[in-house]
Amino acid sequence: MARCRIHIPEGFDARKSYPLLVGLHGYGGSADEFGGIWKFMQGKELIYVALEAPYPFPPSGRVRGSHYSWSFPDQNPDLGKLADPLIADTVEAVVRQISQRYSLKGVYLFGFSQGAVYAYYCLSQTPELYQGVIAFGGHLPLKGATSPFREEELARAKGVKVFIAHGRQDPVADFQEAVLARDDLKRLGFDVTFSEFPGGHSIPPSVLSKALLWMEGL
């Protein structure tokens, strides 16, 4: 199984079923770092697994520790297109393995920044696996020669609801990219909840709580 951090709720009862929230960190993140968000999920009846992207890159300058990317580290777009399906396969394999260990009632993707892009991508590849997607600070690159997306594949997933959250002053992923993602998904038939907040490239705890309440209502 891919390296990950698994968090179970306080008072976990093996006789009960729990929703599974699969976290995909941003570029340069890690399972340890994204797993730390669990502290903002206290009291929630869910299982949270923070996955680690497969491609490491060395620290530079003042940046220390281990950092990972979901994108294949090569300038050749053809190699990237070959590698991207392996990400969806890996996420699916993790979900399958966790479902053998715990009783689940629904699987949800939660991506931040680059992880949000790959949450959309995983949805397009195995839509039958997921009940919802939460995307913070991301975008949906449907156009362009290097895009891994095919609209007809993504449209197959239109029965899966999406929650998009984005800071209006985001300096990394422009706010209008989130607006475009919302509009493209709606055009393809998706039910999209859109939440904008004052601030930048982040996951504010109050907005995360809003997203988790949305998830509970599905």
Keywords:
218 residues; alpha/beta; Rossmann fold; two-stranded antiparallel sheet; 6 helices; 9 strands; globular
CATH topology: Rossmann fold
N-end to C-end Cα span:
28 Å
Which CATH architecture?
Answer: 3-Layer(aba) Sandwich
CATH superfamily: Alpha/Beta hydrolase fold, catalytic domain
List low-pLDDT spans. Answer: none
Number of strands: 9
What is the N-to-C order of secondary-structure elements (H for helix, E for strand)? EEHEEEHEHEHEHEH
What's the layout of helices and strands?
Layout lengths: L3 E4 L10 E7 L6 H5 L11 E5 L3 E3 L9 E3 L7 H25 L2 E9 L1 H12 L6 E5 L14 H5 L5 E7 L7 H13 L4 E6 L7 H12 L2
Parallel strand pairs: 2-3, 2-6, 6-7, 7-8, 8-9
Antiparallel strand pairs: 1-3, 4-5
Helix pairs in contact: 2-3
Summarize this, please?
The chain is α/β, with parallel strands linked by helices. The chain has helices at residues 31-35, 77-101, 114-125, 151-155, 175-187, 205-216, and strands at 4-7, 18-24, 47-51, 55-57, 67-69, 104-112, 132-136, 161-167, 192-197. The protein has a single domain, classed as 3-Layer(aba) Sandwich (Rossmann fold).
